[in-house]
Amino acid sequence: MKHLAIAVVFFAIAFPAQAAEWQAREQVKAYAISGTTGPELYASIGEKGPLIGKTRTIALTNWDLKWSRTYEPQGSSCRLVSAKPFLTITYSLPKPASTLGSATGHHWKTFIDGIAAHEKVHGGDIQVMVDDIIAVTVGLTVENDPACKLIRSKVLTLVKAANEAYKIKSRTFDQAEMSDGGNVHRLILGLVNGR
Fold first, then answer.
1. Alpha-carbon distance 139 to 33, whole Å?
2. What does residue 82 show for φ and ψ, rounded to 5 degrees?
3. Does residue 25 sit in helix, strand or coil?
4. What's the pTM value of the predicted model, to 2 decimals?
């Protein structure tokens, strides 16, 4: 059986932003697959799934993060007083183009519900990363920076560190889920073998 991966694409680092209530915008983008049996549906995913480089994936979580930040000179120093994120998370998931019979439909529902839940973990972790960025950057003060130039590189360094920590967490989660006996592996077997 050809092994497909689930992957997360990392978009955008950050640009200038306000620590306050914020909410991510989440959306689902379906891609059409063909087939009426589990093996046919899985084969179609292998042909039509989203690409990461040259590798097809079952599902994909993309995210786009932008910031609105307010820097405030305070004497000879500069302080980041607010950072408001604008985060859009897009989940790409497979969707059969035709109606499925009851047995295959049951197996498909179990499969796609499990895959969607997997992707939602990535989406939740992305939102935690954004909260972490707010926590470590808002209130940051850099001395001898009355023009608020040095602080921007300090903020970017903290953003990159949070992004790297997220990537490691995401890869570790995917490895566990897709290993033999892992949740995604079991979902694939359930769809293909009809159990």
1. 49
2. -155, 150
3. strand
4. 0.84
